[in-house]
Amino acid sequence: MLLALYLIAITAEAMTAALAAGRRDMDWVGVCIIACVTALGGGSVRDVLLGHYPLTWVLHPEYLWITAAAALLTAIAAPVMRRLHRLFLFLDALGLVVFTVIGCQVALQMQLPITVVLVSGMITGCAGGVLRDVLCNDIPLLLRKELYASVSVVTGGLFIGSQYLGANLNASMIGAMLFGLVFRLLALRFNWQMPKFVYRDEWR
Amino acid sequence: MLLALYLIAITAEAMTAALAAGRRDMDWVGVCIIACVTALGGGSVRDVLLGHYPLTWVLHPEYLWITAAAALLTAIAAPVMRRLHRLFLFLDALGLVVFTVIGCQVALQMQLPITVVLVSGMITGCAGGVLRDVLCNDIPLLLRKELYASVSVVTGGLFIGSQYLGANLNASMIGAMLFGLVFRLLALRFNWQMPKFVYRDEWR
Amino acid sequence: MLLALYLIAITAEAMTAALAAGRRDMDWVGVCIIACVTALGGGSVRDVLLGHYPLTWVLHPEYLWITAAAALLTAIAAPVMRRLHRLFLFLDALGLVVFTVIGCQVALQMQLPITVVLVSGMITGCAGGVLRDVLCNDIPLLLRKELYASVSVVTGGLFIGSQYLGANLNASMIGAMLFGLVFRLLALRFNWQMPKFVYRDEWR
């Protein structure tokens, strides 16, 4: 089941990436590259930082093809995407919580400290989107809006907490993902935001 | 011979990087740093992602000096560079195909799957330029123009294909590099472009 | 003593990062993320490039909490910060030289070549700030102004030089850090700058 969710998640991330690339007038190869970086970048950054080799896409190169294919289909079907707005946001939220739980799980299996497990989930969930925004020369969205990172922290915290309390692995995964998904969708629906820190000065 | 080509390639990349840094008014240390990141960054990203330690410049720190020296010479000789426009584009194209073949070769020696070999070539050929553009706060050029990434894919594919067909290592290297070089120069000459994916929307 | 200096350094870097994040209207989670990336990113990039696992914050996850707490306190106390301008620049300079010496020391212990030791110090001292600027979508400051990278090179060179001449470890550390600190403060005070390489062209 986790594999099915993972495949949905990388597909959804590839689709968001393709639309972001289209906003920047990238060519078809650029669209595929951005899609692969977005969908597989979070896991790659995590694995490199934790020294967890080989990376997912080195073991399973078919994920690269899935991602590239999803991006090209999105580019072709972009006008229809507009009408699938809600489905699209739903898949993106699903991707976030699935990646977060997978990231936590990898760090748990490496028996790392609990803070690192939480950070591993955040990196897996969020770093792909950050890389996408850096390559598209935007200020990373997650640092500014929409509780994206917060949803990842809460999902990861819930998963780790229930694991430490001895809950069944599948139960804690599904519970954490469901809660995170609902939290994210509510945040989008009611436009919840974290307070911002606004600072202006002259010296630098 | 591959070493000679590699040295020409890092020199050429250092020169492109120095000119990019000059457009952004960087100081001399910044010029050297951008040059090292551009010339050695592609190989470093590849080695980190594949877990292929130690990195090239850790084994051969003299490459750092060569790169920095080439960048400083370029900064000094910038007015003359303008007239060497064609030589410069030629060296840059040579760098792309040499890096691509070297990247494929590294992954082949690690006996990685064929898709990963192709990606390894692309990363080695292109990631340095992407890092340069990110540090200079541009949208990476390769994602938008000039078949840069496509040339890398074609060169890598040709090299891998002829290797699988049992061709001699040197012959497949030279063949793939020559073909890629000609392809790139023709693309520049006739301004070939991949179709672009242009997408505009309001929601995000 | 080095540990105490290291803790001061990551705190100072977290503070600079929080102010940079505030200039870009990031939310509280974004401020913490930027602070962790800035304070611990230099060391992480070094460790990943040198294959020096596990990373500092994986071994000592408490550093993540210290950094995040320093960033939040800075965000709360931002109006007061303005008056602490000089203290702040002093701490930032201290962070630079401490990180540089620690980075050199890590590479020395891995018995890497002398050029790599110098580069390791520079990466540790400067990469965190570069990551901060890339995530905030600025052109990295260090590449343009204020002798930041140069101070790191000089500090590292002095430390390595005195080590090779057989000086006591603590003495060379303190000497190099003191010299680098004074150099940096003088550079700030008298607005020393490296010559810039300014280049304009039409073709690209």
Automatic annotation (TrEMBL), chains A, B, C:
Swiss-Prot/TrEMBL keywords: Cell membrane, Membrane, Transmembrane, Transmembrane helix
Transmembrane portions of the chain: 63-80, 87-108, 114-135, 147-165, 171-190
Membrane topology qualifier: Multi-pass membrane protein
Cell compartment(s), UniProt: Cell membrane
Alphabetical list of InterPro entries matching this protein: Gly_transporter (IPR005115)
Domain of life: Bacteria
UniProt cross-references to Pfam families, sorted A to Z: Gly_transporter (PF03458)
GO CC annotation terms, alphabetical: plasma membrane
Residue ranges of every copy of the Glycine transporter domain listed in the record: 4-77, 90-160
Family named by the database record: Belongs to the UPF0126 family.
Protein name listed in UniProt: Glycine transporter domain-containing protein
Protein source organism: Pollutimonas subterranea
